[in-house]
Amino acid sequence: MQFHELSEHEKDKLLQIWYLKSEIRHKFLAMIQEKQPLVRVCRPGEQTTLGTNGQQKIIESLRKRAKNLRKVLNKYNKKAKSFARLNPEHPHPRQIKYADLMNLDAEDPFWNNGLFTNENEPWAVDSNTQNGIRYLAAMNRGTEEKRRLGWEVRRAMRWAIERHDSLRGLLDTITSGTDHERTRTLLGHHTLISLDPHKRRMAAQAVLHSKFMENYNLQRAWNIPCLQVFDKTERQMGDAEIQERWLAQMKFFDNGFNHGTASMIPGDLPVIGEDNERPDNDVDRDQEDIEHGEEEPAAIDDKEDDEDDEYMQEVANMLNENMMAEIANEADYGVDKDDYE
Q1: Which top-level group of life is the source organism from (predicted)?
Q2: 3-class DSSP state for residue 47?
């Protein structure tokens, strides 16, 4: 864009407008600063020593500042309008109303003084160039946010995957009835230490199973949105492993619930010290006994099951939410929570 050369008189007029604009900025910032104590008074939860008299003094001072600001703003608009009328081909300063001035953002183009310092640069005077720069910056910020979103989703998925594997490993160890270093912290918790070893394991099993189901519900809620973000963001190292492990865990739950080998009821797990599945020959032998009238009475087993159910209910009542969280947090999951928080 070509600009007409300004005469000395016109340059002087432009400098006067620049001076008035600087005055506007100075008075505007002074008003904003003096207004802050009143803003804190109106903000919920804020504490202030400003009393009624103090508020009235600030309000009176703000009225005087507003009156002076209006005078300077009127002079500025008058000179800017005159300059635009006398130099229609030359970029001219923007006129603004008092109400609009009070609502301006700190990065509003109005505060740009490029017209006075770099009048031959398109970024300083051309509105299309200025808009293009802002749109490009917004697009770059959006691209960066999308990339960061991809990072955070992958971190969240990795955290849930590791927590699933760790809780599942602890559950398997507890359920098998074997002693292991990983379960000693949990079994030695002060809430459980007074119980006999078998019931202590049952209580720990209930806590772990509750946390395991909590993690599953989280993964189920994340599944579709996380995979969508995963597929629509830039690929990263380790993506194949994350996706493979995530899908395998979701399949593990689906298979367990569909075949009845998994339950979402806390504590509804295999008896400690027994295998999760009975051998086929044991099932066949039971069927043969039934056919030959040799079925063993189940009253004792039913009674034991009822006692276990009653005990698990007592455990659930004893271990309230805070206790369960405390016990679970003291168990070594093998996951660094700082990686997720």
Answers
A1: Eukaryota
A2: coil
Helix (H, G, I), strand (E, B), or coil: what is residue 253? helix
Q: Which of 35-39, 102-106, 330-334 has the lowest mean pLDDT?
A: 330-334
| pLDDT recorded at residue 172 | 83
| Burial class of 299 by CB neighbour count within 10 A (0 to 12, 13 to 18, 19+) | exposed
Instruction: Give the separation between CA 118 and CA 199, rounded to whole angstroms.
Output: 81
Rounded Cα gap, residues 255 and 172, in angstroms? 17
Structure tokens at 237: 């190292």
> What distance, in Å, lies between the first and last C-alpha atoms of the chain?
52
Apex 254 CA angle, 250 and 260, nearest 5: 145
- Please tell me what DSSP assigns to residue 238: T
Inter-residue contact 31 to 65 (CB < 8 Å):
yes
Taking each helix axis from N to C terminus, what angle separates 197-232 and 239-258, rounded to the nearest 10 degrees? 130
Q: Report in angstroms the alpha-carbon separations of 138 from 26, 110, 133, 134.
A: 29, 19, 9, 6
Q: Is the Cα dihedral 308, 313, 314, 319 positive or negative?
A: positive
d(CA 145, CA 293): 71
Which residues have C-beta within 8 Å of that of residue 151, sequence separation ≥ 6? 236
Query: Does position 250 have pLDDT exceeding 50, yes or no?
Result: yes
Kindly report, residue by residue over 47-68, the tens digit of the pLDDT: 566 677 888 888 888 899 999 9
- Cα separation values, 271 from 95, 143, 204, 276, 319, Å: 81, 53, 13, 8, 20
Please give the Cα distance from 229 to 116 (Å, whole number): 46
Residues 272-325: tens digit of each pLDDT: 444 444 444 444 444 455 445 544 444 445 555 555 555 555 555 555 455 555
Res 271 pLDDT > 50: no
